[in-house]
Amino acid sequence: MGPLSPRLLMKRGRPKSGRLGRIRSLDLSGLELLSEHLDPKLLSRLKQLQELDLSNNQLEMLPDNLGLAHLRVLRCCNNQLGDVTALCQFPQLEELSLEGNPFLTVNDNLKVSFLLPNLRKVNGKDASSTCSQAENLNRELTIRVTAHWEKFMASLSPEEETEKAKADFVRSAVRDVHYGPESLSEFTRWRVRVISEELVASGGTQVHEADIPEKSPKATAVQEPKARPVACKRPDDVPLNLSPNKRVCTSPLAQVEGRPTGSDGSQPTLQLEPLYFLQCHSKNNSPKDLSTQLWACAFEPAWEEGHTGATSQSVATCGGEAVCVIDCQTGIVLHKYKAPGEEFFSVAWTALTVVTQAGHKKRWNVLAAAGLRGQVRLLHVRAGFCCGVIRAHKKAIATLCFSPTHETHLFTASYDKRIILWDIGVPNEDYTFQASQLLTLDTTSTPLRLCPVASCPDAYLLAGCEGGCCCWDVRLDQPQKRRVCEVEFIFSEGSQASGQRVDGLAFVNEDVVASKGNGGLGTICLWSWSQTWVSRGSQSTVAVVVLARLQWSPTELAYFSLSTCPDKGIVLCGDEEGSVWIYDVRHILMQQPPLPATPQAPTQILKWPQPRALSQTVTRTMVNTVVANSTFTYLTALTDSNIVAIWGRD
């Protein structure tokens, strides 16, 4: 579609008129319009325009001088908009639709509340709850910026109070003033800059609150919560009673649970306390659902220069027919995706670099979720839609993971005893994926955990399976596209044996692997990848070089997934009694051989705190999986009783 013309506007405008100034409603949807096609000189002639539809085009931005001062309704669905600040030119706007713009986030929804004081509806929903959240954030940010101003100005001498010093204040405020969840950091930085500039302009005497009109009681609707918190923040630790319908084993460490000690008897340096307990995967949103099993969680990637493994405080959880994304700081469910009839078993994140048609690069976090149906759903969670489905296997998918070096490479492992490497590609102009199959790896038993080798992720893949721990060559420069297991690892010295289940597998650092299985009840094994691989020779079965063993629950129950926090040298694992076992293994890895023969005690055991709100319904739960973010500030545990538990550091 070329530039707009008066003839086209009159053809698509209502009421029908030969004069642009009489048009009140204009439909420009589906014309493949680019941003440069919106000619301000032409559109400004629509003096009485109140309703404009720009949906289903290719707009990346709105010109900031369209001159539509009387516009009441604006529809911009299914475009490529990346910013909303140009909307401030429509002060009378009451209804706004922005669905289907994949680069807009919850931060932009909050910005809209400030930019459009008369807004009543956003994407067909009442805007009052968003306005209320924005007001609360703005109030606290105003207080903090004002305090920062007073402190900043007190540090200056009279001769330093120059324009440059005031500009320095704005930069320092944006850098140092923080509040609210990390997921809203873009919005808070924007508001901090605006508040700071207002302070500078007024000489520090006045800061204006956002110009958001008060809604009448009738118009103020309480938004239905996305998740039902089943316990308050930081609940009291009430003793638990064993439920008669759980098969549990009594741990010999039960006497010391709740009294964490280091291996040398000292108090650990990392202390966590319970923050939130959520029921966000309930069937039909029922608070009585305490049976939905939750299986996997993963923290969202965070952009940190030079640190590819950094994660944020937002965590994705899966179980039943739902996938949720939760902010761990506030306990708020930011996004929820449901697939009726599905049961999700695994989730994994990747961070893609998407190039728009105008050549702009955008960072796009994509969440892959899979389970019972053997399909992988690729979710753009912040935009709220599924942008691709890979029909990967004929049987259920047990687990999946992305390559740490190739952002589009995805491994899927299924009960059909196959592991497949996919290239999901980057989304096309319709923001959908076209995946291609790169490799097929055959297994002799069901693969349960996948783990690219940390020191050479492009060359080898480890998998914990029902029948043991296996390794495949995954180099793409090799001709064979279907491969069998190259090496099977056995755990000698009585801890694990060949042919026995390995249901926990993760790298602690670039060399050390943590594994758990039914051949070594009550222990987690730490072993060296490099030393084991060097000793391999031409053998197809190799005994691992064990570095240490960690004491864990002696339960015979399976499928408690372990995880690691490599930056902190931490190993994590849940158990059948609702406890989270935490091991700081840095001191173990630094010891010179021979290492102690007895298993090392955990650094800390987090007991499942029984909130008063649950005392009549949940008396015991099993922690299926537990994961921490890269800075070990938040820890998320998933249970077999439909509870997401979040711990955090003070």
Can you characterise this structure?
14% of the residues lie in helices and 32% in strands. The model is unreliable at 208-268 and 612-616 (pLDDT under 50). A hairpin with a 2-residue loop joins strand 6 (121-122) and strand 7. With 650 residues, the protein is an alpha+beta fold. The longest helix has 27 residues, at 128-154. Helix 3 (106-115) crosses helix 4. It is built from 8 helices and 38 strands. A 7-stranded mixed β-sheet has the order 1-2-3-4-5-6-7. The chain has a 5-stranded antiparallel β-sheet with strand order 8-9-38-37-36, with no helix packed on it. The chain folds into 3 domains: 6-123, Ribonuclease Inhibitor (Leucine-rich repeat, LRR (right-handed beta-alpha superhelix)), CATH 3.80.10.10; 130-202, no CATH class; 273-649, Methylamine Dehydrogenase, Chain H. Belongs to the LRWD1 family. Residues 264-647 form the Leucine-rich repeat and WD repeat-containing protein 1 WD domain.
Report the radius of gyration as a whole number of Å. Answer: 28 Å
Helix content, binned percent: 10-25%
Q: What distance lies between the first and last C-alpha atoms, to the nearest angstrom?
A: 56 Å
Mean pLDDT, nearest integer? 83
Low-confidence stretches: 208-268, 612-616
Structural class based on helices, strands and sheet pairing: alpha+beta
Which term fits the overall shape?
A: globular
CATH topology of the largest domain: Methylamine Dehydrogenase, Chain H
**Biggest sheet details:** 7 strands, mixed
How are the strands of the largest sheet arranged?
1-2-3-4-5-6-7
CATH architecture of the largest domain: 7 Propeller
- How many helices? The count is 8
**The level-1 CATH class of the largest domain:** Mainly Beta
